[in-house]
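Blackboard transcription, Thursday session:
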Amino acid sequence: MYELTQVTRNYQKGRRTVSAVRDLSLTVDDGEWLAVQGRTGHGKSTLLHLLGGLDRPSSGSIDFDGRDLSGLKETQLTRVRCESFGYVFQTFNLVPTLSAAENVEAALVPMGIRGPERRRRVGAALESVGLADRMRHVPTELSGGQQQRVAIARAIVKEPKVLLADEPTGNLDEETRDDIVNLLEKLWLERGLTMILITHDSSVAKRAQRVGVMKNGNLSILRDSRRAERRRPEQRKAVAPEGEPEPAS
Amino acid sequence: MFFVTYLRRELRRRMRQSVFIMLGLALGVGLVVTVMAVSSGMQQAQGNVLQGLYGIGTDLTVTKSPPPFKADDNNGFRITMTPSGAEVCDNGKCSSGAQTIDNLNGLSYGPLPYSTIAEVAKLGKVQAVGGGLVLTDQQMVVPASVATGGALPTSTSFYVDGVDFTHSTLGPYTDGKVTSGRSFAAGDASANVAVVDSNYASAHSLKLGATVTVAKTPFTVIGQVTQPQGSQPPDVYIPLARAQALATSQGKKLTGEVNSIYVTAVSAADIPTVQAEIGRLLPSATVTSPSSLANEVTGSLANTARLTSSLGRWLAVLVLLTAFAVASLLTIAAVTRRVREFGTLKALGWRSRRVIAQVMGESAVIGIVGGLLGVGVGFAGSAVIKAVAPKLSATVVTATGQHLTSATPSGSTSYDPTITRTVPITMSAPVTLDAILLAVVLAVIGALLAGSIGSWRIAQLRPADALARVA
Ligand SMILES: Nc1ncnc2c1ncn2[C@@H]1O[C@H](COP(=O)(O)OP(=O)(O)OP(=O)(O)O)[C@@H](O)[C@H]1O
Ligand SMILES: [Mg+2]
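(Written on the board underneath:)
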């Protein structure tokens, strides 16, 4: 899925150059769940922006499905963002004037999906996050957890290959946090998504297949249970909700 | 449609701000409409005054300046009043003692031979030519003597027009409608008959069959004419031949002369050509077109016209620019506040163009509504102006060519009486279709300008930076 080679992202701060991401090389598999931890200011968000085509590296290459994101034109990059990436943010970032359904719809607008097909997909996405009965509510009429569910529905409605989440549970209480992580895991399992999740929270990180830590712009892998998990599918089933199908392996 | 839904919601969210921008644009645009309405009202009013003075259908008038006036013993009209007696000198011919003066003068313009009319008629692009005598009848009762420092007697005057009704249908007389009695007939050419203006007739109680005295000669009133409102017509019309016989210009009889020639061009576009041709034919004559006449009009009408064209225009431009600036600033502020929202949309795969279209759409709606409100404000402004505008008047001052002197032991005072013709004007401020279109276009331009400044910021926006900002 991803092949990052010696990626560096520098920011100019006055005379000083800050390397938010430095010389980072990383491979992400198709359908894997990678959690990234790390202290504040060590480049987690910057890495996620680079992976999501929201930002370009100062040097190095980011190969995504055979295309180098750093070399794409802005319109091509927009196209890739539109088709392949779903984002979830710590602060939900819903458009405050639009209802839950309309916020989800906003993700389908640039894809040119219209009419009944659009409505069907919006309905299905909200249903899969358990908010079928909150379609007409605007963000202020929803709880934090519900808002994040809408944001997740918005991220998955276009059926992206990759779900990128930047501290999706950072603004939520523990119980809601678990709900959201369960939901993300369920979607990951159901849809065969590649999921990259940034979190400060070790209890969230430990649910992932692979956990890395960002330090001074570089990522070091702490734990990798990809192979182990493949051998023990029953364990994965334990965390998935009842009756969910096995992920394709 | 998503575009419309999103647009409506955003406008509603920022209702107060949107309304504020709309009202600002409406005010600016409304002022522009009002100023345009007032100035087109002014133009209409000026047109009325000029048509009243020079006749409907007349494109050009040909006149000649009177010969330079030398105020010496043998020139001009001199009345000297002292405690020991009065003396009246008319171009060197003096008589003393109490007397009544009644002169018909053609001193505003120099004489032109009647044959000039035919010469002008031969020029190209000339449709019709007519001529007449524009005269003033001046009357004064001079007492036997005036005490030292005593008041000088005042003169009365009225306008007399010598009408060439057997040949021409141009000139001020032809604008009037005969409202009672009859018009001139062919047999009246050398008769002492007069047609009077209905206003002058009612002011001086002149009924049909009454007598009006012109140059000490009694004329019988045979008809009354009413001139278009807002015009400044002559008071008394008499046959041209009678006018030529009775009038003088600087002591010379005007027999065989006219002093105003009225010309109609084949089309409005030919006016400059005809004007130039007449200028070549009659180098010493003044050829006047309605546009050059506008400068002769003074009085409150001219002041108001000047005021609207200077102050009004600047005020409107100022308010409009302020509205544009405020709209732009508020739009920038709104865009800045929505940076994260736009960053999110970009992250969802929205192209900058689509985000910009959204913002421009909002601006366009604000502009259109503001423009329509502005048209409303313009109509209201024009109504207010009609309601509260003071009565205006246009004033045209003409010299009489007379010179009055009062001699006293301490010296002498003198003055040159002039005749001031004042035309009351009903002020109107019509809102034209042009003004309405301009209003809407201006408001939309203003709003789109604001929108583009906002859009420029969006185009600069990199999604990562936008998302990094914590609102
Ligand atoms: N737009 C920017 N301009 C300049 N410096 C930036 C910019 N964005 C990030 N940085 C710097 O890059 C470094 C990494 O920032 P980043 O946001 O990736 O950290 P983070 O790990 O996500 O932190 P947090 O846990 O607080 O979200 C920081 O030192 C930050 O100051
Ligand atoms: Mg961060």
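Lecturer's comment: Chain A has one domain: 2-91+163-247.
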